[in-house]
Design brief:
The complex is a heterodimer of chains A (106) and B (303). Chain A has 106 residues and is α+β, with helices and mostly antiparallel strands. Chain A has helices at residues 58-72, 88-104, and strands at 2-8, 23-26, 33-39, 46-52, 77-83. Chain A is built from 2 helices and 5 strands; from the N terminus they run E-E-E-E-H-E-H. Chain B has a domain at 2-179 and 219-244: 2-enoyl-CoA Hydratase, Chain A, domain 1. The chains are: A alpha+beta (106), B alpha/beta (303).
Chain lengths: 106, 303
């Protein structure tokens, strides 16, 4: 079990902090993960808080998450992940799902 | 409570969907309000100490919404998180929902169950949770609230939750659904492969599967795994609680005793089906839902 926190940004596209409802995608299972996205005052940054059952992959997580953060530039967004040993491809898929749903959330 | 927004295109039934999808599919569109949503982070205190990943909802989604316009409470176990198993928090959420139902008296409580039973990693707390759920369930029923269990998922309903399901007013099952206490692997490991071969899927389904459970009236409703059918079946139970009385209990015990007498010599579900008057019992597992329901409704025991 390992726990990481990564911060990216701040991004310039900060909209006013509102009352966006949190969203969740995925399920914690073998080779799967859940991604919870919430609006939090993070001074314009994206923050990832992550717990994974598989040790020793900090650099891989850093690479996948920084790629996502740079692409989406979600300001004031806390993304919390519970991971059951998902591969980077599954992580990217879930993040893409989360991003899609987050954009559609009022 | 949080409103839930979810994309549900291309999902036709419950079998392969997640707990959250199932609730959104069963209830009226966008009517679900979750209680203790993932953002509250009410999750298992035990798994962390064992170095195991947690889920923000501890593998169960609870809340209220509408079905055909009627106010309902709903819970769905997440099949993908630790086999839908009941830990301390998971159980407490179910108990709390049922206790609230006893006070607020919704048109029904819908339990979409999909579980192997108690989570072994927190077994004592889980076992206590099962008894608390049962107590809360009977409390809700004693207030006239209709409680409906649904078995349409890949894990089936096993262990203590198998007992909980049969404490409900009604069990709704699909062909893929299963209902029992000990699971196939458990029986095989305890009694040997001669007693029960867990790898024999045909045996497993004709012993614990939806069709057999409906024929036995262990499930009171059998439907195709379609959202429309399941919704209509649930709505038809609104306002029809099964009496919870000593008389009713004694009647059920008597009926179970009669079943034991009638089928005492049967060693396989096929023998039972034959004795019930089904002409070609070996064809039952292969029948489509419509043909099966037509035959079943001719022969099954309604209490």
């Amino acid at each position: 079990m390992e726990t990481f926190q990564f911060n990216f940004g701040p991004w310039s596209n900060q909209s006013k902090l509102g009352s966006k409802n949190p969203i969740i995608v995925g399920v914690v299972g073998s080779g799967n993960l859940e991604v919870l996205v919430e609006e939090v005052d993070l001074k314009g940054r994206t923050q990832f808080s992550l717990e994974t059952s598989i040790d020793g992959f900090e650099q891989t997580w850093q690479a996948v998450l920084s790629d996502f953060a740079e692409q989406k530039r979600f300001a004031n967004t806390l993304i919390t992940i519970n991971d059951g040993g998902a591969t980077p491809a599954v992580v990217q898929l879930r993040l893409a799902q989360a991003a899609q749903q987050w954009k559609e959330t009022p | 409570m949080e409103r839930n927004t979810m994309r549900l295109e291309n999902i036709s039934g419950l079998y392969e969907s997640s707990a959250r999808e199932r609730i959104s599919l069963i209830l009226d569109t966008a009517s679900f309000q979750e209680i203790l949503p993932p953002s509250r982070r009410i999750s298992s205190p035990h798994l962390k100490t064992l170095g195991m990943p947690i889920a923000f909802d501890d593998g169960i989604v609870i809340g209220e919404g509408l079905l055909e316009g009627g106010k309902v409470f709903c819970a769905a176990q997440e099949p993908g998180f630790m086999g839908g198993s009941v830990g301390e928090v998971h159980g407490a959420k179910l108990t709390g929902l049922l206790e609230r139902a006893a006070i607020e008296k919704p048109a029904a409580v819908i339990l979409i169950l999909d579980t192997g039973g108690v989570r072994l990693h927190e077994a004592n707390a889980g076992l206590i949770a099962i008894s608390e759920i049962q107590r809360a369930l009977f409390k809700a029923r004693s207030m006239g609230v209709v409680v409906i269990a649904i078995s349409a998922g890949s894990n089936g309903i096993y262990g203590g939750i198998g007992i909980v399901a049969r404490c409900c007013d009604y069990v709704l099952i699909t062909e893929q659904g299963r209902l029992s206490v000990s699971g196939p692997e458990v029986i095989e490991s305890q009694k040997g492969v001669e007693e029960f071969d867990a790898r024999d899927k045909a045996l497993v389904w004709r012993t614990m599967g939806g069709k057999h459970r409906y024929l036995q009236n262990e499930a009171q409703a059998y439907t195709k795994d379609s959202i429309e059918n399941i919704r209509a079946t649930i709505a038809a139970y609104f306002g029809k609680p099964v009496p919870l009385s000593l008389e009713e209990l004694l009647r059920q015990h008597k009926s179970l005793g009669q079943r034991l007498e009638k089928f005492r010599d049967c060693t396989d579900a096929l023998d039972i089906w034959a004795k019930m008057g089904i002409q070609n019992p070996d064809q039952i597992p292969g029948l489509d839902d419509e043909s099966f329901i037509a035959i079943a409704n001719r022969v099954r025991d309604h209490d």
